[in-house]
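Dear support,

I submitted the protein below through the web form. The confirmation email said the job was done, but the results page showed an empty box. After a refresh the structure appeared. I'm attaching both so you can tell me whether what I see now is the final result or a partial one.
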Amino acid sequence: MICIGCPMIVIFVMVAVNEIKKSLKVSRQQLTSLAQVTANNSQGALLFSDKKAAQTILDGLKVIPSINKAALYADDKQQIASFHRQDEKWLPDWVPVRELHIKQPVMSGKDPVGELVLRAGLEQMWFDLLLNLLVFAVIMLTTFCISVLSARYFATKLTKPLSDLVNATLKVSQSDSYEIRVTKDENNEVGTLVDAFNSMLDKLKQRDSELAQHRINLEHEKELAVAANTAKSQFLANMSHEIRTPMNGILGMAQLLISTDLTEKQQRFAETIHSSGEALLLIINDILDISKIEAGRLELEDIDFNLHKAVEDTLELFSGAAHRKNLELLCRIAADVPEGVKGDPTRIRQVLNNLVGNAVKFTAQGEIVVDVSVEDAGLSTSTPKIRFEVHDTGIGISEQVLPQLFQAFSQADGSTTRKYGGTGLGLAISKQLVGLMHGDIRVDTRAGQGSTFGFTLPLPAITLPSPRVFASDQLSGLRLLIVEDNVSNREILQNYALSWAMSVDAVASGLSALELLRNPLDNQLPYDLIIIDMKMPGMNGLELGKRIKTDAKLSSIPLIMVTSTQFLGEAPEARKIGFAAYLIKPIRKGDLYQCLLNALISDSNVAALPAANTETTTDVMGSLTARRILLAEDNPVNQSVADHMLQNFGCKIDIANNGQEALLAVEQKHYDLVLMDCMMPEMDGYQATAEIRRRQKAGKLPAFPIIALTANAIEGDREKCLIAGMDDYLAKPFKAESLLRVITIWLNPALGLTMTEAEPSLTQSTDTTEKSGLNIQSLETIRDMDSSNGSDYAFLQHIVTLYQDNARKILASLEEAWTKGDIDTIRMLTHTLKSSSHQVGAQHLAGMCMKVEMEARSQRYDLSGNALKQIQQEFANIYRALNDYMDSTRTVS
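What the results page shows now:
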């Protein structure tokens, strides 16, 4: 309607305006013509001033209704004649033009003789005009009505199907139902559109049905994938246990074999077995790590630690391997790198281990330098970004290999003829670990020219309780000579010494050092200390030291040896020559500082040199004499074995059967260390440790280390122990050497760090007899614990009897719990039986118990009771096998 009405109104207005203009023009023309005729007729009357004739002429105008007034004026403006209509009609004020005025001059020839004035009203014009416009409006209105009715008819005819389509679309969008259809009325374009719409709904309905089925399939597949992932994680956990079990036996027995009297060939074979076992264990650990990361089950620590020490400790592990390849392994920590930071030291060391290990593996000659610095140094922030870089002079990496360098199971050389081994997991694990710690890892390398692997981590700086303080005034002003052929190491030593305000000279060879010592420049003062590298071309460190000590003018200068390993037999000769101390590469800043002080203080200049080897195990055990240790362990078999080991170390032992007893014990006595089993009745080790730490923070208990003991060295147990507040972790069953090393580290760190670190193991060796299911080596290990008593099977008999009695009680309780469906008790009892069975070498029985325990952890157990029957049958076999073994042992004895 608006579309039709608006144009018609515009047309009406335009026509009305045009008619008004036209009417006004016609009226003016008519009045002008009348004025001209009247003026011509009035010439004589005006010339002769004949008023009567003039009045007669004007009165003739009265017959024209529109003339309201007329007047004749002489040349002197004097009015000669006039008339004024009395019944004059007046138009309303809103009418724009109500009358017309005409002044017409009266001419006689070319001379004006007067003037005629006429005034005409427009009432008739407006009346006629309005009448015409009214007629036109009626016509327009009639046309409009007809148009509206026609449009409405056609709109109804044409737009109803479209409206139905719109309504159907709204209903579909609101209800998500594709059952709605639009009725087709005619076979025209709109009908075609309706058909297309209905066809579209059919297809949408079919697709929606397919999507729904696909969604169901996806959810089913997701459930299967989650179940498979859970099964995979569980399988990996079980496999870690099962694989590491024989690995422990292989490594342990190989280590014992190496320590016996062997021929050179046998020694080489045994060492190959041991090194191969360690390599296999590293591969197993890599696979477990990547599986944990992919499953999202790797938890990071956030603890305070000494960053400098963590880096230096990591590099020390590779000093032997670097030395064997004649490589220089160096560490450079910038002065502005904070010593104390907060983060995960274990994972940082793992990344460094991977990068440095790769550098050692792929570098045949030259050097490996680890640089630690602060990114964007100079910016004031409490969370600096620490940059770790490992530079090597190795084989480098080609451009084609870089894109897949950090992918799992990928290697620079993936061929079967490749020169370097490895799983290809190290860099993938490193990249993901760095990512989890909110850092980034990168590589800069060129084939044949070496590589630089670096990663950056945000590590909040903290203040350590006992930071290392390097008092520069103790070394300030002292003159130091560095004799080192390696540029990088020379620079590191020089920078460290300069930071302590020492005066430093550095030369690259022994000959240059002798020249400088014997012919000082500009009468300079003699040197107070000399650092000499052991391996240098032309003249090695021992030869240079000998020449210095045989020179009367130089012999009093303390000498410090720098070597890539602990002398390897050169110590006696060095002591003989007169070296005061030694440093092992990579050099620690703290060690260098202390070594310089010791060399200055030492009277004999040989006291700081080590003996040919580190502290013996006997010396370590002597340091533990009279140390009081609390053993919190509920399993009587494990109690007896651990008690016997600790007594052999010279420790004083108290035993608590659960966490509650452990709490009472630490309140009543002071202990140097607590060995805490993780799973115990009444209160487990996690709860007991948390309570002890809470009381220590409140000042109610003194501080002491707590070492976790658990048979579950899987599924993040280590992280769980650390979160609970435990200081260290030892997997059961453990060897005496492992236990000795752990407690020595925490009770006498200086001695503990000199001992060889044993790989954490889950079980003892698995040299198992198929008929008996017993690991004979485990029994022999227990028997050997008491070889000093003169009755070398008495202690073993005690352990075996204790195990048999305790296992019978456990199985009776287990059968009762199985009947009641008490899953928590089933889990606890199978865990206990698993632990003690491992201890006596009943590996198959321990594995059966572990399966039941893992099922119970998931709140499931075998309702049929078959698993219980199998455990009972296996124990009966183990019981007989143990008796047979003890009988044979007594017979042999």
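Response: this is the final, complete result; the empty box was a page-load delay. The two ends are 122 Å apart (CA to CA).
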